Fold:
Amino acid sequence: MTKPRVLVTSDLPGDAVAVLSRSADVDLHAGVEPLPAAELEERSKACDGIVCLLGDQISDEFLTACKNLQIVANVAVGFDNVDVGAATRHAVLVTNTPGVLDETTADLAFGLLLSSARRIAEADRFIRAEGWRRWQPELMLGTDVHGKTLGLIGYGRIGKAMARRALGFGMTVLYARKVPPAEGGRRDGPGPHHVSLEELLSGSDFVSIHCPLNKETRRLVGERELSMLKPGSILINTSRGAVVDQPALVSALADGRVGAAGLDVFEDEPNVPPELLSMENVVLTPHIGSASIETRSAMARLAVDGLLTAFSGIKPPNAVNPEVWDKFLERTCGRFANRRS
Structure:
């Protein structure tokens, strides 16, 4: 039996590439800069599989050109960079990395919340600029976190992890999601409580976004939604930048309708609007929600394990489009079965 040929679009933390190399012929792009789209397509044409990052665009046109490609293993829980519908039509299996990054991303989201509320990043810059002269009663006044209300837009694994952290701070937790829970609406106590998006926006001191990016959620939080927020409220986004109408957010921050924001994601990464760069009431991080050594290593290993599991003839549990599995098996024809070592 032959080994599958697999393109890996970036060097990965941990042992994932070494594990993959034992069972596949690996074409590794180890450069710091991402593969240009034309080179990504050209190198993928000779491959049976690809291990890619969220910055790699896997479109219908790309899949049409790469006729040999049978699996796309995306090193991310989100897969908005992959046209899953097109992949299914081309009988290309898509996998992602769910579960392993939930707690780490929630840590970062809550860190952004704390930093935005207590002006931590701004205070750090203040000291480094040698602006601190003495203790003053009104120096760097922020807002308390404990006892406040946190609204979660999206209540999947990461949203639930965020809720646990908030409850530990004595916060009241509200959440809004597409499918309401079986237990119904609002109850007494700290929560979490399911409410409408409108009630969440108007009733929360902090709003944190944890929904995936798709057609329904693109610019879900726009000018109308931002106008519903409490004056001085704080918005946190560790989901995808395009869930928020970025120009509307800039305007709301500039005129004080939104008090502060903590943003790990942006609509056109790595480009960040200059208006956000200039605002002292915005904490910015470069899409590092899952960026711990342990978690990024686990993500890379899950992506590789899913790919190798599929090529061994077993449907991986992290398949995004499992309905394509039978066609995937027909395409591989067992050529790579039992290649794992």
Q: What stands out?
A: The chain has two domains: 5-100+292-332, 102-284. The first strand starts at residue 5 and ends at 8. DSSP finds 13 helices and twelve strands in the chain.
